Every structure is written in C-alpha cells, then in structure tokens.
From TrEMBL:
Species this chain originates from: Sula dactylatra (Masked booby)
Thylakoid listed as a keyword: no
GO MF annotations in UniProt: proton channel activity
Membrane topology: Multi-pass membrane protein
Gene Ontology biological process terms, A to Z: inner ear morphogenesis
Family per record: Belongs to the otopetrin family.
Membrane-traversing stretches: 26-47, 53-72, 93-117, 129-146, 229-250, 271-295, 311-333, 354-379, 502-524, 536-557
Database matches in Pfam families: Otopetrin (PF03189)
Gene behind the chain: Otop1
GO cellular component: plasma membrane
Entry protein name: OTOP1 protein
InterPro entries: Otopetrin
Keywords for the protein's UniProt record, in alphabetical order: Cell membrane, Hydrogen ion transport, Ion channel, Ion transport, Membrane, Transmembrane, Transmembrane helix, Transport
First-listed, main subcellular location of the protein, grouped into a coarse class: membrane
Length: 572
C-alpha cells in the first residue's frame, strides 16, 4: 500500500525533474556558446568581429523579451486567481537596488547611442541596435522583476523553466560582456602605467578596439567614450543581480510553498547611529583615497609608490576593524540561545552559496600576492604592505561569511521576550500558577475570555475587593510576584535589547564598509594590477589572466555582502 501511495508522487515529479535538467543544460550550452564567441572577439580571432557577438546578444534579448511579454499577458488574464508567493524572494530593498542600477544602465545605453551616432561612418549597425535593444530589455525586465519575482509558477511549468533559464543566462552573458569590455579598458590603462613604476622589461602592446575614423563632434565623443567606462560597474552589478533574482524564480517553479506568517522587517535608522557614523567615516575616507590614488598612480615612480602605500595602509586599517566587528558579533551569537531556521528557502541558500563562491575570487588574488612576496628576489618597500593586506582579506571574508550566513539562518522571535520571561517567573512561584494565564493569552488579550473574568495577576486589587477579605492575601502575594517579575523582566529585556543594538550597529558598519571596499576595484583602483611584483613572479600574461578572472567575483562579493548585511540589519 505504501508503494502504491508513493508511486503517483514519484511519477508526477519525474517529468518535472527532467524538465529542470533539460532546461539547465539548454541554459549552460547557450552560455558556453556566447562565452566562446566573447573570447574569440577578445583575442581577435580570424573571422569573428564585434558585430557577431552583438548580434548573438541582441537575438537572446529579443527572445527573452518575447517570453516576458507572453508571461505578462498570461498573468493579466489570470490576475483574479490566487497564486503562491515566495515571501523570501524579491525583497523590496533588492528591487530598489536593481532599479537604481537599471537607471544608470539606461544612462550608459544613451551614451552608447550617442557614441554610435558620432562614429556612425565606421561602426557596424549592430553597435547602434544593441544599446536600443538593451534599453528596452532593461525597462521590461525591471518591471517584470518588480511584479513577478515572488511568483511560484504552477502552470506551463516546462515552458516556463526554459523561458526563465534563458533569461538567467542571457543576463550572465551580458554581465560577461560588460566585465570583458571594462577589463580591457582597465588593462590598457594598466599597461601605460607600468613603465612609470620601472617595469620596462614588460612588453607594452595595447589592445585597441577604437573605431578607425574621426569623430563628428570631438567634445561629445570624449565625454561619451570616457563616461561609458565609469558607468560599466553599475551595469555589471545590474545584470548579476537580475540573474540571481531570475535564478530564484526558476528554482521556485513547481515548488510547494509552506504557508506561514511572514514577519515584516522594515529598515530603521533608530539605534544604529554609532555604526552609521563609523561606516560613513570609512566610506568618506575610501572615496578620498580612491581619488588621490587615481590622480597619483602612473604620474611618476615615487608618486605611484606613495599611492600604493596609502591604499594598503588604509585598507589594512579598515579590514582590521571589520574583523574585530565580525568577531564581536559572533561572540554575541554564542551567548544567545536561539535555534536556526532550516526550512527550504532557495533565496537564502543561493545567498550563502554566492557569498562563499564569490569570496574565492579574492582568496585567489590574495594567495597569489602572498606567494609572490615570498618568492620574489627583490622587494620594493611598498610591496611589504601587501602581505598583511592579503592576509587580512582572507581572514575578514572568513569571519564575515560566518556572521552573515548564521544571521540569515537565525529564527526571529515569534513572541515577545518579556512575556516569555513573565510566564517563566510566574510559574516558578507555585502559589500563583492557578491565577496566571498563559503568555499566549496575555499576548492576545484573551485571558479568561470565556468566563468573563479579569486575570488576577494584573487586577489583583480588584479581585481582592470583589471576592472579599479572603482574597486580600492572594492579592498581596500577586503584587509581590509582579514586582519581582517586573525586575527580572526589565533586566532580561535590557540584556536582549543591548545585544541586538550592538548587532544592528555592527551590521550597519559592515554594510557601509563593504560598499566602501566595492568602490576601489569597481572604479579602477586595483593594486593587483599596479603592484608589479606579481607580474614579475608569475609572468605578465598569466597574472593578468588570473586578475581578470578573479576580479569580477571579488567586486560582486562586496556588493552582495552589502545587500545581505542590509537584510541582516532589518532582521535583527
């Protein structure tokens, strides 16, 4: 009988599991084809031009647009139906973040359109079609994510799996294209700066993809060409955020959602003043360091060395503060006795996997720098600061990942702590057990509802008067219990409140620190390029390949950590 009962369930899930496997393989092949096309363009492969790559990306975006329009139209016709929602997916702050990045991406597209108009005589038409298609794609995709990121799709599941996974890998390819374009620009600037640091033995060959014709308006061309590369970091973050939100939507297809009350977690500035102040100091100083670094690096050997030394000292100080804050938070968690939420949650699982996975990018660069310092024959003075910096990067990510992952898995209190304490203390006084309602009844205000009585715990004097002198002793005893309970409850409440205030300040401080550490690599402040020691030990081309592969993950880690810490701050 058990086999017969289980068989339909197994048979019903088998086609959907096949659909999941088939759709994932379709997406991977779609991505690999685009990745090889991108690589072929990057290395100037024979017969492959930028127009071929852009045509492929345009086709993928158009297919995704058709699927999103079909899904939106079908949703409008079925808007009266009650649908399951994943309350953990597509948080409002995440939607606001992706909207901000999307707006800046639209500005980037407008710059590309202007750049194409100025160089239209020698550029392929695809370079004009691509930003227009990308702008439409961005607008519709943000609207789609705002309206449907929480959906748990239960109809047309096989078709929807292919549509969603196509959207995931389309965004990943657009992210790859943005990373490669921005990395090539950074590499060209790095090659020009290496000579000033005294590394003349490195061959300087610029990878130039500039159009071979004159601009119609020189001033506008300069604004467009320079402005594009300052906007790419936001475009890169937009596509990786979109792909993660779509991936959660894909994992939720056909899922059975547990219906339970979702606790709202609004963000409040109250109680996090200290963390915000210290975080803003770090953010302001980081922006100043980046500005000075970009001005000084490459001007002369002395100025470049001073810029690198300044960067390392500032980063060492910030990372040490972050390690200390993370350790304090973990110690507070060890003192608390709260269970972990192990329920199935695709969004939370993806957050944890991304934290550890993308941290590997920074760890790879840090271990490369440590090995270079150990093996190098000559050590300029500024390179020694790289050793504590690299070690702290590794340790800080270990500690921060532990803090964030434990924070997002901790259960929220379902009942006020004071009421639990009140119940425990009152029960411990055996003489008042019969007079005290349960804390659920106190919380809901329904104590003695059926009999119409007023709980004597709160109205001891009234009960005493109504029931005569025989109750006065009980009333006085209840009064004394209330005093002792209030004292104990007040102490417990203050202890819990103080711990949570410290945790919220730590989360706010780490949030701003991660935003601060996102800024330098995202806007061209990359000592891994400019240090020069790693290129000598590993060779120029091998180390540049390692940096270009690892840096995008390192940059994404900081933004993803900031988003996770914002959620932790709201939840604490």
């Amino acid at each position: 009988m058990e086999k017969c009962a289980g068989s339909p369930s197994a048979g019903g899930s088998y086609p959907q599991k096949n659909a999941e496997i088939l759709s994932s393989q379709y997406g991977i092949n779609l991505f690999l084809a685009g990745l090889l096309l991108t690589f072929a363009w990057a290395v100037h492969a024979v017969g492959i031009s930028k127009s071929h790559l852009l045509s492929y990306l345009i086709t993928l975006m158009l297919i995704q647009l058709l699927w999103m329009l079909w899904y939106l139209c079908r949703s409008c016709t079925q808007r009266r139906l009650i649908r399951d929602k994943d309350t953990h997916a597509g948080a409002r702050w995440l939607k606001c973040g992706i909207t901000l990045f999307a707006v800046i991406t639209l500005i980037l597209d407008s710059f590309k359109i202007g750049y194409y108009i100025d160089f239209s005589n020698c550029l392929s038409p695809t370079e004009g079609i691509f930003p227009v298609t990308h702008a439409v794609h961005t607008i519709l995709q943000v609207y789609f994510l705002w309206c449907h990121a929480k959906d748990v799709i239960q109809s047309f599941k096989t078709l929807e799996r292919f549509g969603v996974i196509h959207s995931v890998f389309t965004n990943l390819l657009l992210w790859t294209n943005g990373v490669l374009t921005e990395s090539k620009h950074q590499l060209n600037e790095h090659k020009e700066r290496l000579i000033t640091l005294g590394f003349g033995n490195i061959t300087i060959v610029l990878d130039d993809h500039a159009p071979q014709c004159n601009c119609t308006t020189t001033t506008l061309c300069s604004i467009f060409s320079q402005g594009i590369y300052y906007l790419y970091p936001f475009n890169i973050e937009y596509h990786i955020l979109a792909s993660t939100m779509l991936y959660v939507l894909w994992k939720n297809i056909g899922r059975k959602v547990e219906h339970h009350q979702q606790h709202k977690t609004p963000f409040k500035f109250h109680g996090i003043t200290v963390g915000m102040i210290f975080g803003l100091i770090v953010l302001t100083s980081t922006i100043a360091i980046v500005v000075v670094y970009l001005i000084q690096i490459g001007r002369s050997k002395i100025k470049s060395e001073l810029a690198l030394t300044m960067f390392y000292l500032h980063a060492i100080f910030v990372l040490a503060l972050m390690c200390t804050a993370g350790i304090v938070a973990l110690l507070i968690y060890r003192l608390e006795d709260r269970s972990l939420d192990n329920s199935k949650n695709p969004a939370r699982k993806l957050d944890a996997e991304l934290l550890v996975g993308t941290a590997a990018g920074s760890w790879l660069l840090s271990w490369g720098s440590i090995l270079a310092i150990i093996c190098a024959q000559a050590h300029p003075k500024y390179t020694w600061y790289n050793l504590p910096y690299s070690i702290l990067v590794i340790i800080e990510k270990y500690i921060q990942n532990l803090f964030i992952i434990e924070s997002i898995h901790r259960e929220q209190d379902k009942v006020n702590d004071d009421i639990k304490t009140l119940r425990i203390v009152t029960i411990s006084r055996g003489s008042t057990l019969s007079l005290t309602p349960s804390y659920k009844e106190i919380y809901n205000g329904r104590a003695a509802h059926d009999s119409g009585e007023v709980p004597c715990l709160f109205k001891g004097s009234i009960c005493g008067r109504e029931n005569g002198g025989a109750k006065e002793e009980t009333s006085q005893e209840n009064s004394s219990v209330m005093h002792s309970t209030s004292d104990f409850s007040f102490y417990s409440r203050n202890s819990v409140t103080n711990k949570r205030r410290v945790l919220k300040n730590i989360a706010a401080f780490l949030f701003l620190c991660n935003l601060s550490l996102w800024i330098p690599p995202a806007f061209g402040c990359r000592p891994e390029y400019d240090n020069g020691l790693e290129e000598i030990v590993f060779g120029f081309e091998p180390w540049i390949i390692v940096v270009n592969l690892a840096m995008p993950f390192s940059i994404f880690y900081r933004m993803h950590s900031a988003a996770s810490l914002f959620e932790v701050n709201c939840k604490t």
